[in-house]
Structure formats: structure tokens, C-alpha cells
Write a structure and sequence with these properties.
Layout (H helix, E strand, L loop, with lengths): L1 E4 L20 H10 L4 E4 L5 H13 L6 E2 L20 E3 L10 H10 L21 H5 L2
Parallel strand pairs: 1-2, 1-4, 2-3
Length: 140
């Protein structure tokens, strides 16, 4: 499987342009997905130039190297000014609807092949907020 993973807010806390604090188990999980489960990990980030190199060095110092960086394969050369459109089976990003799950949850979802189901099955009426009565609103 090809997995595209963001850096800021996903591998480290979001303190762009600085490198944030490590998010627990992010690097270890990605290494396990890569080494044991044989997934290809692509770093997908807005970082470019020196800021990108800082992120790559940060990960490499911790034993994580990526299959490709902001591209579909290592040899791909994006044209100047062309937005990157990656082909991936899965995206790991803190900007997901619902946010970033715990890295243990991420690993179990990928390893088991059972993705997260954010919408409970059943009647859509169950998802609408319930109207509160007068006394419930009064004591809120």
C-alpha cells in the first residue's frame, strides 16, 4: 500500500516553520508499517527547500527514510509551479475530518485492513443535535 503522510501536526506538533515536538509513536509506527508490513511511505508536506531538508534530516536521524518526498516515486521531478498531486492508497494528516487519531489506532486500522468508520450506521436523524427544552437551556 502507498501511504502519504504529512509532517507538521502529524509526525511532530504543528510549530511550522520550526520543527515541533515529536508526536508519540509517529516515527515508530511509520517505521513498522514500512519495515514489517512493507508499505511505501511518502512524505507529503508543504515544506520546501531548507525547511523540507530539516524535516527529512529530523526523520532520518530517528531511522525513518521515505520512499518518496512530495512525489509519487523517487525519480519524479515536478514541474516548477505545478501543484503536487500524489497517488496514494491512504493519507495520514492532522487536517483530516475528525483530526489525527492516536498512532496506535492508525497502525491497527492499517494493519487490520479495517478503516475507521466516522459515521455510525443507521438513521441520519441520530446525527442531528437534539433540541433542548426550556429548562435544559436555562441550566446550561
Amino acid at each position: 500500500m502507498i501511504i502519504a503522510c504529512d509532517f507538521d501536526g502529524t509526525i511532530v506538533t504543528h510549530e511550522y516553520p520550526k520543527i515541533g515536538k515529536p508526536i508519540p509513536f509517529a516515527i515508530q509506527t511509520l517505521k513498522k508499517l514500512q519495515d514489517e508490513d512493507h508499505h511505501q511511505i511518502i512524505l507529503w508536506t508543504v515544506r520546501e527547500g531548507a525547511l523540507l531538508q530539516e524535516a527529512l534530516d529530523y526523520c532520518k536521524e530517528r531511522g525513518l527514510e521515505f520512499y518518496a518526498v512530495n512525489s509519487n516515486y523517487p525519480e519524479e521531478e515536478p514541474e516548477h509551479g505545478t501543484p503536487r498531486k500524489l497517488v496514494a492508497d491512504l493519507w495520514i494528516d492532522d487536517r483530516n475530518l475528525g483530526g489525527l487519531p492516536d498512532w496506535g489506532v492508525i497502525y491497527n486500522m492499517i494493519h487490520s485492513g479495517h478503516p475507521f468508520d466516522p459515521v455510525p450506521q443507521g438513521n441520519m436523524e441520530d446525527l442531528r443535535p437534539k433540541k433542548k427544552g426550556f429548562f435544559e437551556r436555562l441550566f446550561d
